[in-house]
Specification:
The complex is a heterodimer. Chain A is an alpha+beta fold. Chain A has helices spanning 12-20, 34-39, 75-80, 82-87, 89-96, 101-106, 109-114, 120-123, 163-169, 187-190, 271-277, 284-294, 306-322; strands at 5-7, 25-28, 47-50, 60-61, 67-70, 173-178, 181-186, 209-215, 222-229, 240-249, 252-261, 268-269. In chain A, the strands form three sheets. Chain A has a five-stranded antiparallel sheet. A four-stranded antiparallel sheet of chain A has the order 9-10-11-12, with helices on both faces. In chain A, strands 1-3-2 form a three-stranded parallel sheet, covered by helices on one side. In chain A, a hairpin with a 2-residue loop joins β10 and β11 (252-261). By secondary structure, chain B is an alpha+beta fold. Chain B is built from 20 helices and 36 strands. In chain B, β28 (570-573) and β29 (576-579) form a beta hairpin. Chain B is globular, with a radius of gyration of 27 Å. Classes of the chains: A alpha+beta, B alpha+beta. The A-B interface holds A 1-3, 39, 41, 100, 118, 120-121, 123-127, 138, 141-143, 145, 229-237, 239, 303-306, 309-310, 313-314, 328 and B 74, 122, 135, 138-139, 142, 297, 452-453, 630-633, 635, 670-671, 675-680, 682, 684-687, 689-690, 692, 694-698, 752-754, 757-758, 761. The structure holds flavin-adenine dinucleotide. Flavin-adenine dinucleotide (FAD) binds at residues 26-34, 71, 98-99, 103, 106-108, 110-112, 114-116, 160-163, 204, 209-210, 235, 237 of chain A.
Amino acid sequence: MRAFTYAAPTDLSSALARLGAPGTHAVMGGGTDLVNSMKSYIETPADIVDLQGIQELQALDTSGDPVQIGVGVKLVDMLASQPLMQLFPILQDAANVVATPQLRNVGTVGGNLCQRPRCWYFRSVDFNCLRKGGTECYAILGQNQYHAILGGLGCFIVHPSDLAPALIGLGAQAVIGSASGTRSIPLESFFIGPEVDVHRENVLVPGEMLVRIDVPRPAAGQRGVFLKSRGRQTWDFATTAAAVSLVMSAGTCTSARVVLGGVAPVPWRSPDAEAVLQGRSITPAVAAQAAAAAVKLARPMQYNAYKVDQVQVLIQRAILQAAGQGGS
Amino acid sequence: MPWVKTQVVTEGIVTEVLVETQVPLPVWGPDAQLDIVGQRIPKVDARYRVTGAAQYMFDKQPPGMLWVKAVRSPYPHARITAVDASAALKMPGVIDVIHFQNTDPIAYAPNGHVLNQELSYVGDIAAVVAAEDPRILPDAVRAVNVTYEQLPFVTDLQQAIAMDPATAKQIFPQGVLSQPAVADRGDINAGFAAADVTVEATYLTQVVHHATMEPHGCVAQWINGYELHVWDSTQAAYGLQQAFAKTFQIPDSQVFVWMDFMGGGFGSKTALWRYHVLAALLAQRTGRPVHFINDRREELLDTPHRPMHQQTWRLGATKDGKLTAIEMKSYDVAGAFNGMFTNISAVALQLYSCPNVHTEDTTVFLNLHQLSAMRGPANTEAMVGMEATMDLLASKLNMDPVQLRKLNYATVDQTTNHPYSTKGLMDAYDYVTQAIGWQSNRKTTPGSDPGPKKRGVGIGSQIWSAAGGPPSNAEVAIQADGSVTVRSSVADLGEGPKTILSMVAAEELGVPLAVVNADFGHSDYPWDLGTFGSRVTPSMAPAVRQAAYEAQQEIFTIAASELGVDASQLTCKKGVVYVTSDPSKSIPFAQVAALSSHTIIGVGWRGPNNAAYTTESFGAQAAEVEVDTETGVVTLLNLAAAHDCGRAINPMLVESQIHGGVDMAAGYGRFEEQVVDSRTGIPVTTNLVDYKIETAVDEPVIDAHIVENIDTIANNVGAKGMAEPPTMPTAPAIMNAVYNATGVWVRAMPLSPDRVLAALKAAQPQQSA
Ligand SMILES: Cc1cc2nc3c(=O)[nH]c(=O)nc-3n(C[C@H](O)[C@H](O)[C@H](O)COP(=O)(O)OP(=O)(O)OC[C@H]3O[C@@H](n4cnc5c(N)ncnc54)[C@H](O)[C@@H]3O)c2cc1C
């Protein structure tokens, strides 16, 4: 690990001011990912800005519209918030299957959304892959069983966050702060694929950080479900995941969001699947049609074709559950 | 006592040992009246482990100590052309950097020398940096500039099998494939000719790591320039002492190895590894204690592992299910160097009664770190192919798989024609089938559950050399206050020798367990071969018994003069020595001890094995799984395990071994695998996220059952070895259960969702477009 300076400001504006100063900075939420990245020299910041002492980033306000979730909120505290879980059961689905209890006790919402990819080539000190400044994505001709089937362009990481698809399914906004102020963008446009920039996973530029997630209060008849498939039933990232949020009115789907995890370099929203659901009453056949639409453009590699089938199953199951048709 | 030659089988490896016959003590048979042995007693050292009081190797940090870290090859095969350590040596606190150019060659068995110019796998050691502060080491290691010439390599089994010999010789002088080692019984062709039914299948079993919680490492220090002191996480302190002495050309008596507590070994910590030599060498060069410990990536690159195999099994049987032929051909991947336990033929030759057996084991060399023993080496891997092919045969015969096994039950050791001293496998089958609900839960038509989630059950069996044998030695010292110390170099890896051997000493002496302290793992104590091969209980317990008996004789001699009787008339129970015929004449054990003017030390050893019998442990497991045929996820719901270990000296610890073994193997069956990028030869599973050990959440409900079958032939305590066997039946039981649930064979391990889905898809009738 490269030597670094460290600051633990207690208010947001000094954190943002420090971030804006020249030099390479990294913000630290729980540090569960950052420290690992530093140990393997993926991140070599000269300065660390620890957010853990900043009260305002830990605020979780469920009273208004939108519901506001500070980036410093720990996953465990998110799960412990009854009002939040009642408003958005899909967040419970997702946060509950993140990592392990130990990591959820420490990891934060901001850190979860901004964590670096888990691609084993990217994480290994033995590979200087495209994302780390090298010239090649080793997954293309290599061991790609956990890699992208959609949206891979040059680089085939999958986005590792379970929270992200669920939050995008809810239409969340990302509030970004810097020394010069804040801006708010849809969370789905917060994430960027390799076609935009192969070296980072989100829009943040030096001097910026994520400060809050805003989630619109649910509409009447809105229901969301997040399903994740993984080898082990804890301490494992998604091989595939599906977040489905539907607004049902008199048996008809009036609004739908379908967002996939574990299949693409970004949380993968599927307008094609949503279009299938829009205005329809939900049946197994409709759900299957939507699932098929979601993977229409999938391009599996040598070892990850199973994801195409697996994610369709999750999408179907999530649609049916969100439409109140139970089952597993 | 007379000296005799005896045969000892440890993990299938046969040796002959000259040994003194033991003092004949009455055998603890089924009717023996025992106070302590057989009780469920928590581990005597559990308190120290869970409170953090226990000192592990890492905790030894003598003043002035240096920390070290290795510079490791990023290439699977390379020659070092230059090492420039100047930048690293300028970093604060960096004291020394060693490599093949600035050290004298030190012989090291697996690959020539400890530090080599030619490196044969990713993670192979190119240089070692010593520094005062461990925090500088990762940067310092990166600052050592090693220039490599890359050499041809192979890390993929299929590529190696297909490789032409000329290319292969450029990688390894001996080529990448050995001549097959062949074993035969009867006439295999005649066996298949006599068969009504023949089945054949090929299995791929993967590389798995020991993944010990405590990494490999040691602290080495030279005292007064001539005594080498080593604190180590080793399974064999005595063996290590000898190996250190040989390497540094000093007498054994000048080497002291200590192992007090260990966080897991599983076979990977039995030998002298390079880190040992490097730590001692750097300690010699710098005159300071040196601390060498792997990080997790180093653990997954540069410690040995369970090898990979491609096993092809062919079975022939009559239409009523009698085996006529067993053929097994396996490619056994050794890694870059040859080692023990590549050959997996034993199961084919031993488990089932069959007159005609033919096995071929071909060793394959790949540019990966070498294999070593890992909990039940060879049999754990071979059991996968053997047991899955038995189920394939059962389905072809339309027969219950358990019935097929019982029909081919071996009543003698077919390799020697000796009877088994005890064999409780039949009871084990009966227990586990009952416990798993075999009759109701087995799908007579595999895959017949409606819906995407399908359940099924499967069986696996196990055979394993469990006699133990010499050399194992102990001494029992009676302190002046009547407390008792049991000493041996034997290592307690956490599985409980301190507990059960204290129990044996207390039982024989007739004192409460609380006054006994087991002081183990020091190389200068009486020898023990080491803690591996499930050998400790059947080897050490008789030795400790004898040592306790000898010490007790002295106690009786002293007590006899106090009580005015002959020593032979005395008994000791619960800490009181009394006249057997008149218990009112008595004296407390502690009082006798206080009377002694010299330390009372009894010495004991393990005597010869009974040459007329074969002693093996047996067991069976039945698994119930649920397969989500749409996501490929296999849930292991229940696992019943019944194991015959002779006498259970402490049933609680036997059950705990069953739990541990099942968990380890449930990971082998479903999650764990080393994945290597074959284009670059670099393993990519170098952390515990990507290398997936089983978690508590994935653990099945385990019904651990002891088939108690006191073995009065094996030794005088009636116990057989037990530590490794529970890993053996689990993975095949899961594979068989997945077949029973889905009607589809998944023959590449682990049974991860991608493999399960691929196999299910391949088995589907082609859908019309
Ligand atoms: C073993 C393991 C298993 C895991 N499994 C899962 C899983 O199954 N599903 C899942 O979703 N996640 C998983 N994770 C990720 C885990 O949830 C994250 O480690 C955690 O949420 C990160 O939180 P943190 O607060 O510790 O982040 P940190 O480590 O502090 O930060 C992570 C990254 O985000 C950046 N960052 C942090 N906060 C901000 C901010 N406000 N603005 C901009 N950048 C920021 C940091 O600079 C750093 O690069 C796993 C992690 C580990 C180590």
